[in-house]
């Protein structure tokens, strides 16, 4: 019995080592060797691209940030999607936001409070407030309407916590107190009253979860002027592409900043737009890295 | 063309490709696992391993071989990670912390590929390539091997012998997985997937900033991660990362790879039991459930109900521009219907009901079509349960493929199906009862519960995808989910092999008028119904508190 146990485990170890050599050394090295062939090598090495002066400026298929030292978007570049990878487009920390569809209540920063590491408390923004804030900022940058459903004019989630006795379905028919949870005092709430009750601003640090959380739709268009990909983070945080609608929205701003016509910019956008593979796979997309690189070549920004 | 039309064509083309490939490929696997001849290279491997490839094993010996191989694999992979700091190509990373190394070792050996770590900041190239990716091959091969032994229980009569584990293992690697992986890896590289051994290197970007570009033997690992229904990404972003899944058409190929073996094995089964129609019946059940699920998740994602999706105007959070919402949803369905767990978009940010479908897919026991091998034996055990239920209704002795389903067989089948719910529900309840574990939730309210429920469902079913907001690299979660993966993989496997041993001993009962035909649409409908009801009754209360509570209100 004991010897068969030992024999079996020795065979298992030998099998593992043999298969490790075959599938874990020979196979990947063989694929690597084949990938050295011309035509494959460029992509196997990461599809790196060079600027006009010959310096490598990154990968064609990995997105980049186009912000200045202050972190603000550079007006003469097309802006990529928001990124949750590190501080933005960091390939050593790829990530999505992982915030859910009902992430609507912010944790407001408490003035003067410190976090565990002794830094000032910055609170955490809900996904809704992130979307609203991005939409407002992009609207201002590109001169379009940045409003969205469930967003306040100030660019946070329009969400109320409604206190009071509940009916059988859980609704509060006669509120006793209503708080706009994402608007820290002394902000003026996005609505003055709710069912006859004056809406209060939120005091950071107070817990409004006991009330019923009610997002308020508001009157914004169901299809906002700022496209959906411009206000959402991608899965990888490295998305090199934006939607054609997003590129069209940004084109006039880029044209003005570079002193060329919008049509010229739109032509370039067209050149860097990839349709669906075989006509039906995926979605049309515009490669921001290549587009911006090309813009620098065609119409360098004079600062 | 509208996005919806394109999305439908995408699904349709996958269905056509799978229908076209499942017969020749299923036949090929039939020849691989019934052939008495050994390839020269295989004979060399058997000599190195020191086993006789023609020695037959009883179920208990087969099961012990599986367990021995898996135990050795876990210990080896654990040591490999812990010693990373002393090895080549470690990119400067130190040994992996003990609780993460234990969790990861189990995760890859059990075909789960749950990842409590982030690839690009934890694992060097050698550990990925010669540790993790090796388990992608062999854990898939173990699944296929056990499925073949299980089918032999039906195909053989009056015998104790279920085949030889070492032979099945080697053949699955050498003749099935390696050739397909090699071809597909080259195709992915042509699409833009990387295959190099570069250290992370810094470049000056177009706008004058800096960016660190990572490398690695990614393509070779990416294909086996899909083909073997493993799912462990080279990078944290998994198949959303442009270096793993660069284009919309590589996305199609990856979905095809992760479904092709599981959808072809029923053909192999039909050939082995000498009645192709039985294989068609099983694949029909799988296909019916899969198509329903793909439609459901696409509808939920394209309709984009919920506060944030409405504000955005699409369920775009966590998806890549090049794939779009529909192809992301189709990938999500495929990865949770199989035991893959690779993701090209992040399920935590899906609409409530869309995310609920991914969870339901796993709760089905991953049988439509399921993991490589495990999907087939899971579905066949559901068929066994179905003939038992049907037998009770008409008052006849239940039999399947000429084998009587008696008390002993039903005990094994029932225990097989009780394992996962017990792990999922007890695990989730325990975590939710502990404040420290609740604090791991990123989202609040019902979505927070969904994160924990998803984690245990994924671990116990050996899927490996996640509602990734949950912080799981804590000793508690690493240990608890590690245990969930071990028990969720090996207890059902042992019960399946025990059942096969019991079936193989019987001599077949001749077909009579009272025999329930198991190749007709009626039976297909019954198995699908039993699957849904069994799961529905077990998990409905938990789903009601998570995705349903979140998605159905007003």
Automatic annotation (TrEMBL), chain A:
It is a single-pass membrane protein. The keyword Ion transport applies. InterPro entries: KdpC. Part of the high-affinity ATP-driven potassium transport (or Kdp) system, which catalyzes the hydrolysis of ATP coupled with the electrogenic transport of potassium into the cytoplasm. This subunit acts as a catalytic chaperone that increases the ATP-binding affinity of the ATP-hydrolyzing subunit KdpB by the formation of a transient KdpB/KdpC/ATP ternary complex. The keyword Transmembrane applies. Keywords: ATP-binding, Cell membrane, Ion transport, Membrane, Nucleotide-binding, Potassium, Potassium transport, Transmembrane, Transmembrane helix, Transport. It is found in: Cell membrane. It comes from the Bacteria. Its main location: membrane. The system is composed of three essential subunits: KdpA, KdpB and KdpC. This is Potassium-transporting ATPase KdpC subunit. The gene is kdpC. It holds the Pfam family KdpC. The chain crosses the membrane at residues 12-35. Belongs to the KdpC family.
TrEMBL record, chain B:
The keyword Transport applies. It comes from the Bacteria. It is found in: Cell membrane. It is a multi-pass membrane protein. Its main location: membrane. InterPro entries: KdpA (IPR004623). Keywords: Cell membrane, Ion transport, Membrane, Potassium, Potassium transport, Transmembrane, Transmembrane helix, Transport. Pfam families: KdpA. The chain crosses the membrane at residues 6-25, 61-80, 132-151, 172-194, 249-268, 280-300, 376-394, 415-434, 480-501, 522-544. Belongs to the KdpA family. Part of the high-affinity ATP-driven potassium transport (or Kdp) system, which catalyzes the hydrolysis of ATP coupled with the electrogenic transport of potassium into the cytoplasm. This subunit binds the extracellular potassium ions and delivers the ions to the membrane domain of KdpB through an intramembrane tunnel. The system is composed of three essential subunits: KdpA, KdpB and KdpC. This is Potassium-transporting ATPase potassium-binding subunit. The lineage of its organism: Bacteria, Bacillati, Actinomycetota, Actinomycetes, Streptosporangiales. The gene is kdpA.
């Amino acid at each position: 019995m004991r010897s068969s146990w030992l024999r079996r485990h020795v065979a298992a170890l030998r099998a593992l080592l043999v298969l490790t050599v075959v599938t874990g050394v020979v196979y990947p090295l063989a694929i690597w060797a084949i990938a050295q062939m011309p035509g494959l090598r460029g992509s196997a090495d990461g599809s790196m691209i060079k600027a006009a002066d010959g310096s490598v400026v990154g990968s064609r298929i990995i997105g980049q940030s186009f912000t200045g030292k202050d972190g603000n978007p550079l007006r003469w570049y097309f802006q990529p999607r928001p990124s949750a990878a590190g501080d933005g487009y960091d390939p050593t920390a790829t990530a999505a936001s992982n915030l859910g569809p009902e992430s609507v209540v912010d944790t407001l920063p408490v003035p003067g409070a410190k976090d565990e590491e002794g830094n000032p408390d910055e609170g955490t923004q809900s996904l809704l407030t992130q979307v609203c804030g991005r939409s407002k900022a992009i609207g201002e940058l590109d001169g379009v309407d940045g409003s969205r459903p469930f967003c306040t004019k100030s660019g946070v989630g329009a969400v109320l916590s409604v206190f009071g006795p509940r009916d059988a379905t859980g609704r509060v028919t006669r509120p006793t107190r209503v708080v706009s949870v994402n608007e820290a005092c002394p902000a003026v709430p996005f609505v003055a009253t709710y069912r006859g009750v004056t809406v209060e601003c939120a005091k950071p640090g107070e817990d409004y979860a006991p009330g019923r959380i009610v997002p308020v739709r508001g009157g914004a268009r169901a299809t906002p002027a700022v496209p959906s990909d411009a206000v959402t983070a991608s899965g990888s945080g490295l998305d090199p592409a934006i939607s054609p609608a997003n590129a069209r929205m940004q084109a006039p701003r880029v044209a003005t900043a570079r002193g060329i016509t919008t049509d010229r910019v739109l032509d370039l956008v067209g050149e860097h737009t990839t349709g669906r593979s075989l006509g039906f796979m995926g979605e049309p997309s515009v490669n921001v890295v290549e587009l911006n690189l090309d813009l620098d070549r065609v119409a360098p920004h004079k600062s | 063309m509208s996005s919806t039309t394109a999305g439908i064509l995408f699904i349709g083309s996958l269905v056509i490709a799978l229908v076209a490939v499942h017969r020749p490929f299923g036949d090929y696997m039939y020849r691989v696992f019934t052939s008495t001849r050994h390839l020269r290279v295989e004979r060399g491997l058997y000599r190195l391993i020191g086993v006789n490839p023609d020695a037959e094993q009883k179920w208990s010996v087969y099961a012990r071989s599986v367990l021995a191989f898996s135990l050795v694999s876990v210990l080896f992979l654990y040591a490999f990670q812990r010693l990373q700091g002393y090895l080549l190509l470690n990119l400067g990373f130190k040994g992996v912390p003990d609780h993460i190394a234990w969790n990861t070792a189990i995760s890859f050996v059990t075909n789960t590929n749950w990842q409590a770590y982030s690839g690009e900041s934890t694992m060097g190239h050698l550990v990925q390539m010669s540790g993790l990716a090796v388990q992608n091959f062999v854990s898939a091969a173990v699944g296929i091997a056990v499925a073949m032994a299980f089918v032999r229980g039906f195909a053989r009569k009056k015998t104790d012998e279920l085949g030889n584990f070492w032979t099945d293992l080697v053949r699955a690697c050498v003749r099935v997985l390696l050739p397909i992986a090699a071809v597909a890896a080259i195709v992915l590289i042509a699409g833009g997937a990387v295959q190099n051994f570069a250290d992370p290197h810094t470049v000056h970007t177009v706008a004058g900033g800096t960016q660190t570009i990572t490398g690695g033997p990614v393509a070779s690992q990416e294909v086996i991660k899909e083909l073997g229904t493993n799912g462990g990404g080279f990078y944290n972003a998994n198949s959303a990362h442009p270096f793993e899944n660069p284009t919309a058409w590589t996305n199609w190929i990856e979905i095809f790879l992760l479904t092709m073996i599981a959808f072809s094995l029923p053909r192999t089964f039909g050939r082995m039991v000498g009645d192709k129609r039985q294989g068609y019946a099983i694949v029909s059940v799988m296909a019916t459930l899969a198509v329903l699920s793909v439609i459901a998740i696409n509808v939920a994602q394209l309709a984009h109900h919920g506060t944030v999706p409405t504000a955005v105007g699409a369920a775009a959070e966590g998806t890549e521009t090049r794939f779009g919402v529909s192809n992301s949803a189709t990938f999500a369905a495929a990865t949770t219907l199989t035991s893959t767990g690779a993701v090209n978009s992040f399920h935590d940010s899906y609409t409530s009901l869309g995310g609920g479908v991914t969870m339901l897919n796993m709760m089905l026991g991953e049988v439509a079509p399921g993991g490589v091998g495990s999907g087939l034996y899971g579905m066949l055990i559901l068929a066994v349960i179905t003939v038992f239920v049907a037998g009770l209704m008409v008052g006849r002795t239940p039999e399947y493929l000429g084998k009587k389903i008696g008390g002993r067989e039903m005990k094994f089948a029932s225990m097989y199906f009780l394992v996962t719910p017990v792990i999922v529900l007890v695990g989730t309840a325990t975590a939710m009862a502990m404040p420290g574990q609740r604090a791991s939730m990123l989202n609040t309210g019902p979505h927070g519960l969904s994160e924990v429920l998803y984690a245990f469902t994924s671990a116990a079913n050996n899927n490996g995808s996640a509602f990734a907001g949950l912080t799981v690299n804590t000793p508690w979660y690493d240990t608890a989910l590690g245990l969930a993966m071990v028990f969720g993989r090996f207890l059902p496997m042992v019960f399946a092999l025990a059942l096969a041993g019991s079936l193989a001993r019987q001599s077949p009962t001749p077909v009579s008028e009272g025999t329930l035909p198991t190749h007709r649409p009626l039976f297909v409908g019954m198995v699908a119904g039993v699957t849904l009801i069994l799961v529905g009754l077990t998990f409905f209360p938990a789903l009601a508190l998570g995705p349903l509570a979140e998605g159905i209100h007003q």
